[in-house]
Each structure stands twice: as C-alpha cells, then as structure tokens.
Write a structure and sequence with these properties.
By secondary structure, the protein is mainly α. Helix content is 56%, strand content 1%. The radius of gyration is 21 Å and the shape is globular.
C-alpha cells in the first residue's frame, strides 16, 4: 500500500493558523505574543525544514526503514514473516492504533534524549530558543534533528510495522505537536488525564527551574507520568519561555549552530578525554568543576534554596 505523509497537507494549514493566531493576538492587544524578527527567523527555519525533510524522508523511509523491514521481515511465498516467527503486521485499524502508540512511546524517548544529551540538545535547542510561545515557534525546528531522528524509529519496522505506516504516524504526531504551541487554549479537564495538551506544552517550553525537562510526550502524557517527567502548569508561577543562554541574534544560521560552537569550545578547553566526552554526550550544563549545572543539579539546588529563599528563580543552563 502507498500512503501520503500528512505533513504534505499540514504545511498550508500551519501557515493559515499562524496568520490566524497572529491576527487574533494583534486585534486583542497581545502585542508581546509575536515579534516580527523572531517570527521571520522561525519561518526561515520552518521553510528550511520543509525543504530538507522530504530529502531525509527518502533516506529514512525508503532506505533505512525499508531495509530494516525487509531484513527482519523477509517475504516467503508472498507473506511477510518476522524473524521471531509471527506474521508481520498488516493494515487493520487496530494495527494503526498500535503503531501510533509505538510512535508516541518512541517520540517520548527521542524527545527526552534531545534534552538530556548535549550533542542532541545542540540540534533541539533551536526549537526552544525563542522567548515567545506561539504557533510560529512550532515551526522553529533545528535542521540537524532530522538527520538522526529515523534512528530512534528503526525498531518499529523491525518488529513488523510497515515503513509507510510508520511514516504516516510520524506525520500525524507532527501535526499534533504543531497545534500544542498556543497560549489561547485553557486547561482541558479530563482530557489532560491522558493527552498532552497546550498548557502542558507551555511547561515544556518554560525555563523556570520547576519546569525544566518536563512533559516530553507527543499525543499522550502517560509516558511522562510513568517515567517521572510530568508536570502540571501552576497558575501561580509566572512562566518565562526560552533558554537562558539563547543566541543574541535573529540570524537563523547563528540560531542553528550556536550550541555546536559552544561544544567545540568546551572540548578544546577540556583537560582530558573524559571531560571532552562528557561535554559532547553528557547532559547540557555539565562541567567537571560545577561552574555550570545540569538541570537535575539545578533542581536539587532549587529545592534546597526554596526553603531559605522561596522566591529564587533559576533558568536552563544552555
């Protein structure tokens, strides 16, 4: 069977909804929600992603996914059978649901890794680098993330999900993620028991220490709850979006590459190979002497100092 990536239809909708939210914000006096230079920078990176993504899709879907699928699900007498002995999955409705669930599980760990491994954070920080939280920020994606994302999903065709099904589920996930980037949708009651919602994603984009590295989920929030990274939006906390060491520039190239330059600087200044390794593959903010702190270190310090100075505020180290 042949399927079309939902993002083909999603891109025009992205533009339309960004313009709609932009107009609504200006009409209602929310001039702080969109900044023109910031929006143009996000748009440039979004267009770049839209151009690069189809090229990478050829590598991921046609080459990697198809190769893995064929390797682990050889066809014998016209029937695909997994090497573990069961017949490969077809296209029944419940298989689609299982595939989307598997996609959501994978997205959680892919997203979490982007926050906890510095070299991956260097690509993902682009998405968090804006001080604004709006639908324009939703398309502010790092170009280099696309290069390694398929590697996280290889297990899905390996266990028997058809490559084109995986690609469609990835597209559906991206559509859901786009619409989460809005401050105009309030808390949604019972829906928030299961699904990842707009207020939860506001938490994810905040640099307040309480909120750092929380709510990595895609459709669902169950994996955040299972693995201890879920946090509800507190109406008593003034949310500050972005990252504390954001590039002081609206130049898209600077935004895309600044963290890589910082990694190279730290590696060059390293005293041994272990330090160099940790500057690349350790968590963002790691340092051998504690001169900069990881998120977990910040949060432990924050909890300790909250008892002494409850109003103290911290921000993401990178």
């Amino acid at each position: 069977m042949d399927f079309t990536n939902p993002l083909v239809y999603g891109v025009p909708c992205f533009i339309a909804f960004i313009l709609l939210e932009l107009t609504y914000s200006k009409v209602h006096g929310d001039d702080h929600l969109y900044e023109w230079k910031d929006l143009f920078a996000s748009g440039f990176m979004g267009v770049g992603s839209a151009i690069i993504a189809p090229l990478i899709k050829v590598v991921s879907a046609v080459v990697i996914f198809e190769y893995v699928y064929g390797l682990f699900n050889p066809e014998v007498n016209g029937i695909r059978t997994n090497i573990l002995g069961y017949e490969s999955f077809g296209y029944a409705w419940y298989v689609w649901l299982l595939c989307q669930l598997a996609d959501d599980f994978t997205y959680y760990w892919f997203h979490r890794a982007n926050h906890e491994v510095r070299v991956l954070w260097a690509a993902h920080i682009v998405h968090h680098s804006s001080d604004n939280f709006n639908l324009g920020t939703a398309v502010r994606n790092g170009w280099f993330t696309i290069l390694y994302k398929p590697l996280f999903y290889m297990w899905m065709p390996a266990v028997g999900f058809a490559p084109e099904m995986v690609v469609v589920c990835l597209g559906i996930e991206a559509l859901w993620q786009f619409q989460l980037h809005s401050v105009y949708v309030p808390k949604m009651g019972f829906i928030e028991k299961i699904f990842n919602t707009h207020t939860m994603h506001q938490v994810h984009h905040a640099q307040n220490v309480e909120y750092l590295d929380k709510n990595h989920g895609g459709f669902l929030n169950i994996f955040d709850k299972i693995f201890g990274t879920w946090k509800e939006l507190d109406d008593n906390i003034d949310v500050k979006y972005g990252v504390i060491h954001a590039p002081d520039s609206y130049n898209p190239i600077v935004i895309l590459t600044h963290e890589y330059k910082d990694i190279i600087r730290d590696v060059k200044n390293s005293k041994n190979l272990w330090h160099a390794f940790m500057y690349i593959f350790g968590p963002p903010g790691w340092s051998p002497d504690g001169s900069t702190l990881t998120v977990k270190q910040q949060q432990r310090l924050f909890k300790k100092q909250q008892k002494e100075q409850p109003k103290m505020v911290f921000s993401r180290p990178n």
